Amino acid sequence: MNFYEQVYAVILQIPRGKVSSYGRIASMLGRPRAARAVGFALNALKDKQDDPLHAKLPWQRVVNSKGRISIVNREYGRNEQAERLRAEGVVVNNKLQIDLDIYLWEGLHWMEIDDILKVQKE
Fold first, then answer.
1. What is the pLDDT of residues 42-81, one digit of tens each?
2. Of 11, 68, 70, 93, whose CB is crowded by the most CB atoms within 10 A?
């Protein structure tokens, strides 16, 4: 499984009403310096919209380490990301900031990550 598919597998685990950051996802995958690569993986989703495995991926649940919407999804944009999060009950302020003390998903333990990645291979 390539890195992008690993990113998508983790993002699928983020619960509705919670967010994670690019860096936290990279760290969960054992690549703490790969936050930018997580962003590239999300940006690549624009080329996979016809793929049912990727069409429902909750990309909106990934923000930067300060809780801000920072990626401009070429297809949807920052405001669309904010609206999707608001629809899930996440409070997003006018500066596109989310309170991570309230909405941050703690993530997965490495053993859980290993299990998820094994299932994705099968």
1. 988 877 777 777 778 999 999 999 999 986 555 568 888 9
2. 11
